[in-house]
Amino acid sequence: MRFKRIFEAEEDGMKKNYFRFLKMLPLLCAFTILEAKADESSQTQIVKELVYKEFHDPGYVYFLTEKGKELEAAFYYRFITYEQIEKWSVGEKFELVIDANKGVGVRHKSEAEFFKVVFARPDNPIGLLEKTCLETAVTTLDIAGCFHQSAERWRRESDYLFRELSTSASKTVFGQLSDARTKWLAYEASLMDSFYTYGQEQGGSIMKIHSASLKSELAQSFYYQTVRFFE
Question: Which domain of life is it from (predicted)?
Fold first, then answer.
């Protein structure tokens, strides 16, 4: 499948995400510098500085970080035309960003133009910000808050995709997908209610972390399911 690598990486990341806070406990008093250069309230949050490397037609575009790490992202001609990406030159400067309306993507520095791309979890800005948040979290509420932030970011990602599909997909497909979304949200709400009850039975504030982590995983899963409709 075209994006097999991305979804395999995502699945592996989700399995690890639930227990990630256990690895963070020894680091709760450590403080690191947040790479993002803007507040959540800002229109665009800059996560990393990038330089363009190359693209493969169709499907993948590659960037390098300031430290020389290669980042791979899937792209869709719905969001980036062949004529646009063909004009990009090796070494051109981009930014890895989270736009308030369009979500995760890259922004061409010289033209300040946003392009929607899809990163695998290890390099996805949402995952990077979550990791940084967990490394600086101190209390149970802090840790749970990191996951709640991620859940909200994933939700905004899905909302943007649905807005795009409302204009690009056929009425039949969009109607079926909208119905599936309604059922998914109902399932999510029911599952979270069940987990809340389970947490009360188990006791302990640590269940707040488990609950928030599960909510983030569900939101993330729905996003990566929805993005398949752009292949």
Answer: Bacteria
